[in-house]
Amino acid sequence: MSQRDILLSIRDLRVAFRLEDGGRFEALKGINLDIPSNSTVALVGESGSGKSVTSMAIMRLLSDYGCEVDSASQILFEGRDLLRMPLAEMRKLRGHDITMIFQEPMSSLNPVFTVGDQIAETLMIHEGVGRAAAWQRAIELLQEVGLPEPEKRVRAYPHQLSGGQQQRVMIAIAIACNPKLLIADEPTTALDVTIQKQILELLANLQKKHGMSVLFITHDLGVVGEFADEVIVMRHGEIREQGPAQQVFEHPHDSYTKALIACRPKLDHRPQRLAVIEDFLKPEPYVPPTDRQRGYAQDDKIILDVQGLCVNFDVRAGLFRKRKFEAVKNVSFQLAHGRTLGIVGESGSGKTTVGLTLMRLRTAAAGKALFEGQDILAMDDKAFRPYKRRIQIIFQNPYASLNPRFTVSSILTEPMKLHGIGANAQEREAKARDLLNKVGLPAKTMEKYPHEFSGGQRQRIAIARCLALQPEILICDESVSALDVSVQAQVLNLLQDLQDEFKLSYLFISHDLAVVKHISDQVMVMNKGEVVEQANADDIYRAPGNDYTRRLLSSIPRGWTPSAELAGLPI
Amino acid sequence: MQDMTMTNNSPAELTPPRSLWSLGWQRLKRDRVGFVSLWIVVAFLVVIALCWTRLLASNWGEEVAVPYAPPTWAKGEATAATNGATDANVLGGANGPIITLTPEEDPIGKDIEAARADAGKYQLKATVKADALFMGADVRGRSVVNKVLAGTSTSMLVGIFGALLSVLIGTCLGAFAGYFGRAVDDFLMWFYSVFTSVPDMLLLLAFAAVCGRGFLTLIMVLSFTSWTATFRLVRAEFMKHRSREYVQAADAIGASHLRRMFVHILPNISHLLLVQFSLLLVSLIKYEVILSFLGFGVSVRQVSWGSILGEVPAELMQGYWWQLLAVVIMMSLLVTAVSLLTDALRDALDPKVK
Which pLDDT score is estimated for A562? Predict the structure, then answer.
């Protein structure tokens, strides 16, 4: 890259948090990075890498309580040190020269003010323009960020807009004063994949149009590949690798960066096992395993046959009236023994409701679910009880699905106790230890509580709890979505190992198309409660037969695609 | 298994297991004000335990001093202030001139002589009554220290058991209302609304007037009128928790409704109940004092802060302030300590609020 003006440079930034027990946690261990003007820099790292702390340090939003910035640290913005600037001056910079957008647009916008008020506020504070002029400009800004009918929307309250539209409003506020630096902290993580694509394109266009710099913070290397000029990879408060995007993606030298690129499931091939970080930390080079063939075979035994499933919710409309909302409409599918059926869809597609209804955690309005010929939806609770242990569910959020007051031991032995597995407490304890071993946790963690584990470890405990009942069908409801990419690969490998060993049948529900492609034999695409398409995984990704599926597939971030870049194709 | 080696952000395998309670205890120990309050409350609990087992202040009813004996450390002032009363005693007392009959004139003189000879047998041992005690004495010469200690024990026991019963009622009703919702919730909410529509004090006095006086009725009355706040809190918490994933997971593994309610959800709100209990403790002690002051509280043979305070207005008119002082010190010490402890507990057990 040619030598360009440096807009912001961070020198030896060290930040530590004081812990409540008196200890210190070093969040940043001496960071050095430069952001050139008129360029996009991506800061990539998993949770705990310190990427958000870096952005907060630039904005000086780290609270004074419990947070220490080393006295030798420097953050130079156009030659001025932000860390030593008087607060009044810093306030002038914030929102004017340096602006920020956050992950959750809903909680970043004030719900009691209209969108127009919130955009105009920035302009009135920083540009000193009058109210009428500010409103006029707000409408122009909404037009610029691509909100339809800006004259009408400017009077809308945040809750009247969708998530993507809210994020557009946040961007409008951020670019209102033509900032020199826009910090985007995971701006698309909470959004659906089609919306994510639109927002990424919008950001890329605005960056070029305004000639500003964008610091794009994300956990997903795939997202940044398309438009970042420079990529910085962080881990545990240190920078592992930085350089032009091409170099980082094509010739990474750091083992962690290599692992990050490799452990994300790919759309074009499906390895037997996903690469994990440990594979790259070994002295011997990583050899990618052979590909796995997937798909239903002719002679597969059908274990679960769902026919015409409908689920309705009552939505309160007015004081006494209720409106029926059809969350799932006439869904039919078959799950083969020892295979995986992936269900993909965006938020509101009803995919989670399908899973919960099969567990009888929601009530079906119509339809059958035949488990070995028996309709499990029509049974009374007593008759369903023996089936309960044969069909189990793993939830999305491992932080919420384990009871925080239970030890691992009681979490694992409770299902056995309820279903009379194991003769006595000792036997159940021994079984629980085996299960922990199976999911890759040491037996000495038996007496620990869930809060003492990381997200990936908790998801392993949740998996072990399901295995305690020796189920035949396992419903994975977004089970790897809340996990870091590297941990996600470990858990996906674990699920695969368990399927190979116990011949489990999975119903794998996810919004992540690449993950679903990796793990599924057959894929079912859902949209607004209806099944759009269902076919073998490889077929559906190669030749989607439906417009919606095509749109969904084309929205997947492609990551770094040198060929597209060279040919100048639209991404 | 290949991926058995975990990422390095896993301190779980190295440190000993720590429950949320023990983490809360660690945080409480770091809170200096909270920890001092805890020790004060513990000291009070020791006092009531000793009183209850009759090791301390069991003799609070004995008349060990002259009526209204002043505190030893304020004897001078107190005598000056109460001189008028003593003078009146002297004038109407035994020291006045007595005109008697001669033995010959007295028709029962002989009997009296005979009785005098036996008098030694019947004579009560003349107890020496102190003319000053550490915290003074009340109208019957009972030690204020003992009386206040006994009163503390009564008031706190009423507060503790009242709060326990009240939390129990509130938790059970709230759990059912919040967990099952719909008709159960509607019914219990109507019940709740009726209860709260009557002013607190009125309800309390009405119950107390019907049930009569006494320790047990006082506990009943206080808990029947104070369960409403706990009910609302527990109901809201159960509504929040019943759709949490861990409760759904419990449903998925086949846990019954009662098990989900009391084995899974209840421990997760137990810290709130502890805070609620200490809030109630303070307010019930205050209610007990008010009721006893008005004469609806403990029976006449028992003593509590309220019944002591009931004697105070009359005493103050005559300038006997020490009984009031003793009660005020104990009561403010306890109430302040419990309130500060409540704040500290909330911070320690629910750190997200801070």
Answer: 56
Indicate which of B29, B241, B245 best probes the interface with A, i.e. most A CBs within 10 Å of its own CB. B245
> Which of chain B's residues have a Cβ under 8 Å away from the Cβ of A414?
250, 253, 255
Quote the minimal CA–CA distance from A142 to chain B in Å: 36
Which residue of B lies nearest to A447 if distances are taken between CA atoms? B17
Can you give the residue range of the structural domain that contains A484? 303-554
Which pLDDT belongs to residue A1? 42
Q: Which of B1, B18, B268 sits opposite A497 (nearest CB)?
A: B1
Query: How far is Cα B156 from Cα A352, in angstroms, rounded to an integer?
Result: 53
Is A60 an interface residue toward B (CB < 8 Å)? no
CATH architecture of B19-60+143-353: Orthogonal Bundle (1.10)
- Asked whether A106 and A158 are in contact (CB, 8 A), the reply is yes
> Residue B124 above 80 pLDDT?
no
Number of Cα atoms under 13 Å in the Cβ half of residue B314: 8
Closest CA to B264 of B255, B253, B272: B255
A452 at interface of B, judged by CB pairs closer than 8 A: yes
Is pLDDT above 60 for B34?
yes
Quote the number of domains for chain A.
1
Q: What is the 3-state secondary structure (H, E, C) of A19-42?
A: CCCCCEEEEEEEEEEEEECCCEEE
Question: Residue A180 and residue A97: Cα distance in Å, rounded?
Answer: 5
Chain A with chain B: Cβ pairs closer than 8 A? 119
Q: How far apart are CA A467 and CA A394, in angstroms?
A: 10
Give the pairing type, strands A74-77 and A238-244: unpaired
Mutate to test the interface with B, among A280, A401, A483 (most CBs of B within 10 A): A401
3-state secondary structure B158-205: HHHHHHHHHHHHHHHHHHHHHHHCHHHHHHHHHHHHHHHHCCHHHHHH
Give chain A positions within 8 Å (CB) of B351: 20
Give B45-63 pLDDT, tens digit per residue: 999 899 888 888 788 888 8
Q: Which of A225-229, A318-322, B24-28, B123-127 has the lowest mean pLDDT?
A: B123-127
More confident residue, A108 or B175: B175
Cα R_g (chain B), whole angstroms = 30
What is the least distance, in Å, from the CA of A438 to any CA of chain B? Answer: 8
Domain boundaries, chain B: 19-60+143-353
Q: Is residue A402 part of a domain?
A: yes
The CA distances from residue A5 to A38, A79, A217, A546, B167, in Å, are: 9, 11, 21, 48, 67
How would residue B81 be classed by pLDDT, with cut points 50, 70 and 90? low
What pLDDT shows up at residue A256? 87
Percent of chain B past pLDDT 90, that is, above it, reads 30
The residue that leads in pLDDT, B15 or B9, is B15
Nearest-neighbour CA in chain A from B349: distance (Å): 13
Assign B202 a pLDDT band (cuts: 50, 70, 90): confident
Whose CA is closest to A193, among A564, A560, A554, A571?
Answer: A554
> How much is the pLDDT for A524?
92
Q: Show the low-confidence residues of chain A (pLDDT under 50).
A: 1-3, 563-571
Cβ within 8 Å, pair A449-B19: yes
Looking at residue A474, the DSSP 8-state letter turns out to be E
User: Quick check: is A415 in a domain?
Assistant: yes
Question: Does the complex come out with an ipTM higher than 0.85?
Answer: no
B13 confidence band (pLDDT: 50, 70, 90): low
Instruction: Report the CATH number at residue A478.
Output: 3.40.50.300
Q: What's this model's pTM, rounded to 2 decimal places?
A: 0.79
User: What pLDDT was estimated at residue B351?
Assistant: 61
Q: Which DSSP state fits B12?
A: G
Please tell me which residue of chain B has the smallest CA distance to A236: B9
Contact B104, B113 (CB under 8 A): no
